UniProtKB/TrEMBL annotation:
Keyword DNA damage: no
UniProt signal peptide: 1-22
SUPFAM superfamilies associated with the record: EF-hand, Thioredoxin-like
All copies of domain Thioredoxin, residue ranges: 108-278
Alphabetical UniProt keywords: Signal
Stored Gene3D superfamilies: EF-hand (1.10.238.10), Glutaredoxin (3.40.30.10)
Protein name: Type III iodothyronine deiodinase
PANTHER family to which the protein is assigned, alphabetical: IODOTHYRONINE DEIODINASE, TYPE I IODOTHYRONINE DEIODINASE
InterPro entries: EF-hand-dom_pair, EF_Hand_1_Ca_BS, EF_hand_dom, Iodothyronine_deiodinase, Thioredoxin-like_sf, Thioredoxin_domain
Name of a matching Pfam family: EF-hand_5
Length: 278
């Protein structure tokens, strides 16, 4: 059977709780129930003594008037901003609403020619051109941003695939605009220390490069990273936001356009394609 070579384009953007499902706010009734449980002395406010550990870690952010107490209004307002699936899983983290305006209309179908691009490297000088990557072996392009929790989780599977298949496929991450700008995330600094950082939207390449480098470092990604341009042309061409996997063959044709993430971001499917190359 003739062996086929493919280019895997992983477009990981920033959105889910990047999806509508994960963005769906908890009900007001649920917030009120939790507030009543925490307000043990029934005085209509929650102080730090009553707050559970996770709430204590975020207390300063939730206490909008800094009076050392959370009113019902303060609690419900901040509660509604948190995702149902608890993407803000570490103390002090905060998940901002998804930048849904970044989503692009579906444009590519199987058999279409993959839009070519040349993008600057994050960790060094020079650029990377897509059409030069799929000449001799598959390419897995990972498009994403650090503010998308499902991306942070699932890209670890892509890293595993890279370690297993890097002799048979090229891997490249493309960093795009943030899925959840203004989110607060615990990251690893250049000095190797952990700290909470707020990730605003990347409207210039300098900031995008900084976010991309932090993403690489925090998630321990070893494959190269490039950045989408300020015109966000690559995201628009592939409708990659929030995250997506696109398979491209060595003729530069779309083999599998994938589906919108986060549900459509399926490293297991990529693994199946890569196994055919052995």
């Amino acid at each position: 059977m003739r062996q086929r070579l493919f280019v895997f384009l992983t477009i990981g953007f920033v959105l889910l709780p990047c999806s509508a499902e994960a963005q769906r706010p908890r009900s007001s009734d649920q917030a009120q129930t939790m507030f009543r449980r925490m307000d043990r002395d029934r005085n209509g406010v929650i102080d730090k003594r009553e707050a559970p550990a996770k709430l204590k870690a975020m207390f300063g952010d939730w206490d909008q008037d800094s009076d050392g107490k959370l009113t019902r209004s303060e609690f419900e307002s901040n509660f509604s901003k948190r995702r149902v699936r608890g993407a803000a899983s570490k103390p002090g983290e905060y998940v901002a609403p998804a930048a849904k305006q970044e989503r692009q209309p579906e444009a590519l179908q199987a058999g279409d020619r993959a839009p070519d691009f040349t993008l600057p490297r994050v960790g060094g000088e020079g650029t990377v051109k897509l059409s030069e990557l799929y000449r001799d072996k598959p390419v897995v392009l990972v498009f994403g941003s650090i503010s998308c929790s499902p991306f942070r989780q699932r890209v670890q599977q892509v890293e595993q695939l890279y370690q297993q298949h890097k002799d048979n496929a090229n891997f490249l991450m493309v960093y795009i605009r943030e899925a959840h700008p203004d989110s607060k995330i615990q990251v690893k600094t250049a000095a190797g220390e952990e700290e909470l950082q707020t990730f605003v939207q990347t409207n210039n390449l300098a900031l995008r490069r900084e976010h991309a480098a932090t993403c690489e470092r925090t998630l321990s990604l070893s494959f190269p990273t490039v950045m989408d341009g300020v015109d966000n042309r690559v995201n628009a061409a592939y409708a990659g936001w929030p995250i997506r996997l696109v398979v491209i063959d060595t003729n530069g044709r779309i083999l599998d356009p994938g589906a919108p993430g986060p549900q459509g971001f399926t490293p297991d499917k990529v693994a199946t394609w890569l196994k055919t190359l052995r």
